[in-house]
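Field: COMPLEX_INPUT
Field: COMPONENT_COUNT = two
Field: RESIDUE_TOTAL = 591
Field: MODE = joint
Values follow.
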Amino acid sequence: MSEDDGALLSVRDLARSYGGVHAVNGVSFDIPRGSLTGMIGPNGAGKSTVLGMIAGAIRPDRGSILLEGQEIAGLPAHKASRRGVIRTFQAASVFPRMTVVENLLLGVPPWDGERLTGALVRRRRWRGEERNQIDRARSLLERLGLWSLGDAYAGELSGGQKRLVEIGRAMMSRPKLLLLDEPMAGVSRTLAPTIEALIAELRDEGMTVLLIEHELALVERLCSPVIVLGQGRVLMQGKMDEARANPEVRRAYLVG
Amino acid sequence: MSAATQYYIATICVYVGVNVIGAWGLDLQFGVTGVLNFAFILFQAVGAYTAAMLSLGPASASGGFQQYLFGVHLPFPLPIIGAMLVGAALSAVVGLITLRRLRSDYQAMVMLVVSVVATVVAQSVIGLVNGDAGLSLIPNPVMGLTAFTRQQQTWLFVALCAALMVIVGAFMYALVYSPYGRVLRGTRENEPAIEAMGRSAARARLQVFVIGGALGALSGALLAEFIGAWAPSEWLYPETFVFFTAVIVGGRGSISGVALGAALVGVGIQQAVQYMPIGSNPVVLASMEWVITGLLTMTFLWFRPQGLLPEQRRRFARRREREARALPREQAVSR
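Field: COMPLEX_OUTPUT
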């Protein structure tokens, strides 16, 4: 167990290097349960690598990642996801030639109807469950303002709409920990406020979120606490105004 | 109708059935799930050889004029079932080695190499499947039915192929139009995303590799039993691309489209070439088939990548009350 009872996720001494370059070099931090934690830092600070390691997409060289006291470091992505760690990608990552509703249906955690045997026998059993999932997906689309696009191919949407679908897909899974990798990347100005409001709503509903961003303004409006990364290390962890005052952080941003 | 015409039509029917079953196997792998199996023809070949060896009996029984690894004489439908099992087993072995660690473009290259190596092995290790000469006198299950005439027997085999095609078609629809099929398409569309949503892409790929391999073997078994012979020249690696062309022309991921593509490409081109004013030199005719196949693939990839009958968009019925509530808003969006 982590020392802090309020921590959903405890990262300790996490490291990963690529060909001698220490992308992440001994990073430790906690994500309090129910918080919207921001992770900031200049380009190349190691933010995305940290997120990738938590999500299982990147194997850490060393270190530990405890989710509710359970080690998840080194699990492959699909297993980390099954533990409740759901991520979005820097470039909004949808299933292009599948409808928006289908995209959301793939957000539901793996279930019995998806088994190979389920496709062939006892089809009635999953039909009802699937209908419930479709209803959930449609009401979520209503909330996201995408109701009329349910049958559109996700690949036909704008960047911001794709981002909404991606976050919606993550919401369908009811994650324990949501990892947002630069959610404003590729989003037009018209949709940016919608996405920001959605993230604020998720925070207010008590979802635990780690948001990665290199723009300080968004993190300042949404997140508390914040973790500042620079050159693969945690420079500081705390409130945003403390971060702004921190000389090391200033230097990192000026240098980076 | 003359006996020759009847046999001609029956042959075309069998070839269509065999090609459609095989193309569905590849469609499940490549069209639905995105696995580039450039060794597909190998699994058809394995099915053909297995069915042959499970129905020929011991090599010594026929005077030892052909050599093969082992032989038993099993009654219908065991050779066909055995062929599918061996096809699935070999797929599992090849799939476990190639599909887990490698990126998909490298997987494709490895598959191509596997196909070429397998041909060389089959050609040079005579004791395996009789080398270049191949296996012949493969019994056809309908030949034992002495109550029927030769012509009726041929049509019985056509019926067998048709029945199997219907069963495999129903199986394809059940698989692809299900939540399981959705995971397969998700694997094709975006591997990192499907993994991030808790599904193992490697597992999905391996499963369709095995199922598709079994379907390829089934088509090979039927083909070998119909022709009565099977040799390496039937399954050189370019033959795989006939199946790829069928899937691309018909429509990747579209079950009806791929059936159409398999009939057009697998059988139609060969027939069409016979009626072209380019003489009757068999070498020229065969080359012409390859030229047309290649041009078709390129034309479709450029101008109609979705194929003749594209994969259907999956629409789910809405709950009536919600539909009523949303109607005004929907009208506002679509003028």
